[in-house]
From TrEMBL:
GO terms for cellular component: DNA ligase III-XRCC1 complex
Residue intervals passing through the bilayer: none
Positions of the ATP-dependent DNA ligase family profile domain: 98-253
Catalysed conversion reaction: ATP + (deoxyribonucleotide)n-3'-hydroxyl + 5'-phospho-(deoxyribonucleotide)m = (deoxyribonucleotide)n+m + AMP + diphosphate
Descriptive protein name: DNA ligase
Gene Ontology MF term list: ATP binding; DNA ligase (ATP) activity; metal ion binding
Keywords: ATP-binding, Cell cycle, Cell division, DNA damage, DNA recombination, DNA repair, DNA replication, Ligase, Metal-binding, Nucleotide-binding
EC number: 6.5.1.1
Organism: Ptilorrhoa leucosticta
Length: 317
């Protein structure tokens, strides 16, 4: 999908109205089912690790009764059972997932591109919504507790009514951001198999749809900003193996009088900058040793770094 940086641009690209669908911040997975055989592929067409998807074979037939063969596009997320909200991206790994005991792995299906030997690639999005209306009600009534829901269309009680006013779209974007979701995917309601330029049909590798995220809107003005310091670092992988290339960032909490981790920073540095940081940053190698984690640091054990700063008060911003 094409990045959409303003509501005005969305209305211009979809003058006839649009459907808005939740954009989940999970791991993209394409599901292939042929009889009782299931295969799962990542965005790069590599097989997905079994611990993330193996259990879905027990639930997909219930979510799609009568489906002997199908290809589904979806996102895999870890969902907190208490809040019903997605947990952060990257928590599906074996070790990181262990830190979230009361959570389930869920498959959010956002497209069906092949069903019972029929390709749906040339079907318009508007027809897809009609098909969803047919299957969605029984799906939510009969398998609402299963970890294979359809992704929500237009959010409001799963009402697939299109947006035709800029104010309605603005309200929906605000709701999505407030809920902590990644964003929306917008699809033109007038798309047909004869007019791909309208933006509603799906073509692999093409950007006919629009994606809205808070860091896109108004040149990033809706994105949150924070002043953080470097608390630690991790070894990189591949060409960056053996050097610090991932940095643990955090801030000071006056209530607990400890420094708290906030995020990892692993992109945006060229080779020259990384080479300079190896000597400019004052770091102590601890190799993820729990006994060497300083008392001033509040950190989950799954984020123990390879290096730690001696004194965060004089660390780099």
């Amino acid at each position: 999908a094409e990045a959409c940086k303003s509501i005005e641009y969305a209305m211009k690209k979809c003058p006839n109205g649009m459907y808005a669908e939740i954009k989940y911040d999970g791991e993209r997975v394409q599901v292939h089912k042929n009889g009782d055989h299931f295969s799962y592929f990542s965005r790069s067409l590599k097989p997905v690790l079994p611990h993330k998807v193996a259990h879905f074979k027990d639930f997909i037939p219930q979510a799609f009764p009568g489906g002997q063969s199908m290809i589904l596009d979806s996102e895999v997320l870890l969902i907190d059972n208490k809040t019903g909200k997605p947990l952060p991206f990257g928590t599906l790994g074996v070790h990181k997932k262990a830190a979230f005991q009361d959570a389930n792995v869920c498959l959010f299906v956002f497209d069906c591109i092949y069903f019972n030997d029929i390709s749906l690639m040339d079907r318009s999005w508007s027809l897809d919504v009609q098909q969803r209306e047919h299957v969605q009600d029984p799906l939510w009534k009969t398998v609402v507790k299963l970890p294979v829901p359809l992704s929500a269309v237009a959010l409001a009680n799963y009402d697939p009514s299109p947006f035709q006013k800029a104010s309605d779209l603005a309200d929906m974007i605000t709701r999505v951001i407030r809920e902590g979701l990644e964003g929306l995917v917008l699809k033109d309601i007038k798309a047909s198999s004869h007019s791909l330029r309208t933006g509603g049909n799906y073509e692999p590798g093409k950007r006919h749809w629009l994606k809205v995220k808070k860091d896109y809107l108004n040149e990033g003005a809706m994105a949150d900003t924070a002043d953080l310091v470097v608390l630690g670092a991790f070894y990189g992988q591949g060409s960056k193996g053996g050097m610090m290339s991932i940095f643990l960032m955090g801030c000071y909490d006056p209530k607990s009088e400890k420094w708290c981790t906030v995020t990892k920073c692993s992109g945006g540095h060229d080779d020259a900058t990384l080479a300079r940081l190896q000597t400019e940053l004052d770091m102590v190698k601890i190799s993820k040793d729990p006994s060497k984690i300083p008392r001033w640091l509040k950190i989950n054990k799954i984020y123990y770094p390879d290096f730690i700063v001696p004194d965060p008060k004089v660390s780099a911003l």
